[in-house]
Specification:
This protein has 333 residues and is α/β, with parallel strands linked by helices. It folds into two domains: 180 residues, NAD(P)-binding Rossmann-like Domain (Rossmann fold, 3-Layer(aba) Sandwich); 136 residues, Orthogonal Bundle (N-(1-d-carboxylethyl)-l-norvaline Dehydrogenase, domain 2), CATH 1.10.1040.10. 51% of the residues lie in helices and 12% in strands. Helix 8 runs parallel beside helix 11, helix 8 packs across helix 14 and helix 9 runs antiparallel to helix 10.
Length: 333
């Protein structure tokens, strides 16, 4: 089976490594960095992200979109969400046989507030450029996956057949995949948890401890669920891997870019300079703007998202926003 990973970053590399354990797979990683692709082909490493890992010979790299996209059975979309338009253009131009698309990006369409799957489907699904779309999401850090830490995620699709295919494709003795059909709920959980993770990091940076994190995660889950139900998601989705599972992981680890960014903001009690220094893609920053606008449009109360938005985009002091959250009108849980 011919599989191309569109993106040579940490997550794509980790998933390619997980998949390389299977027999009869031809794995290509497409990237724009000549240095990274050369490292993969000549040294069997992606040293920028994992300098201690030797990649199997089954993984090869290319910077040529024709090589990456023509005649492939499966495409794995593993680029930052802001790069989706460019990748869609590449697929439209070079793809020739309607492969299955596996999306591992977490985020939202900034224009519509819908999940990434809807954005991709609108761009590629109409013309039959891909045969179907499955999202692979759940509580997982690239570093842990590539070091064979036991991991469980979900293959999410409106097509159960496609989801089962991805489940069987990726599942191994250390990477377990469950099937799920609530695309809307899974994408909301996977995307909104990044905003709550920024808040969690801010709280630690401000000096708050375990009680605070527990309260934040719990109320964050309530907020995600409330927003999800308003968008047509199923409540039980938020009690699973793509809901509370993903939320707990991202809100509690320094490996999370969202948590780490929040931590720095909390320490400085200000976001302006931290955001100016930041050179990494932090999906929660983009998501906060989208979900803030969408929640106002559909009339859903999202106080934690609002607070993060005010800190990131309006120059509010984190300590002031925390106080406002604690002094909101009292109510039943």
């Amino acid at each position: 089976m011919k599989i191309t990973f569109l993106g040579s970053g940490a997550w794509g590399t980790a998933l390619a490594y997980a998949l390389s354990k299977k027999e009869d797979v031809d794995i290509l990683m497409y990237g724009r960095s000549e240095k990274e692709i050369e490292d993969i082909n000549l040294n069997h490493r992606n040293s920028r992200y994992f300098d201690d890992v030797i990649l199997p010979n089954a993984i090869k790299g290319t910077t040529d979109p024709d090589v990456a996209l023509k005649g492939r059975d499966v495409l794995v979309l593993s680029v930052p969400s802001k790069a989706i338009p460019d990748i869609v253009t590449l697929i439209s131009k070079h793809c020739d046989n309607s492969p299955l698309l596996i999306n591992v990006i977490k985020g939202f369409d900034p224009l519509t507030g819908e999940g990434i799957t809807s954005l991709i489907k609108g761009s590629l699904g109409k013309d039959g450029l891909v045969s179907g779309i499955v999202s692979l999401v759940g509580p997982s850090f690239a570093y842990d996956v590539i070091h064979d830490d036991l991991t469980a995620v979900c293959a999410v699709s409106e097509s159960k057949e496609n989801a089962v295919f991805v489940q069987k494709l990726f599942s191994s003795d250390c990477f377990r995949v469950y099937v799920q059909e609530d695309v809307v709920g899974a994408e909301i959980g996977a995307g909104m948890k990044n905003i709550i993770a920024i808040a969690s990091g801010i709280m630690e940076g401000l000096g708050y401890k375990d009680n605070t994190r527990a309260a934040l995660i719990t109320r964050g889950l309530a907020e995600i669920t409330r927003f999800g139900l308003a968008r047509g998601a199923k409540e039980e989705t938020f009690l699973g891997l793509t809901g509370v599972g993903d939320l707990m992981l991202t809100c509690s680890s320094y490996r999370s870019r969202n948590y780490s960014l929040g931590l720095e903001i909390g320490k400085e009690n200000d976001a302006v300079n931290v955001l100016l220094r930041n050179e990494k893609t932090v999906e929660g920053v983009i998501a906060a703007k989208t979900i803030y606008a969408t929640s106002k449009k559909i009339g859903v109360d999202t106080p934690i998202v609002d607070a993060v938005y005010h800190v990131l985009y309006e120059g509010a002091k984190p300590s002031d926003e925390v106080r406002k959250l604690m002094l909101r009108q009292l109510k039943a849980e």
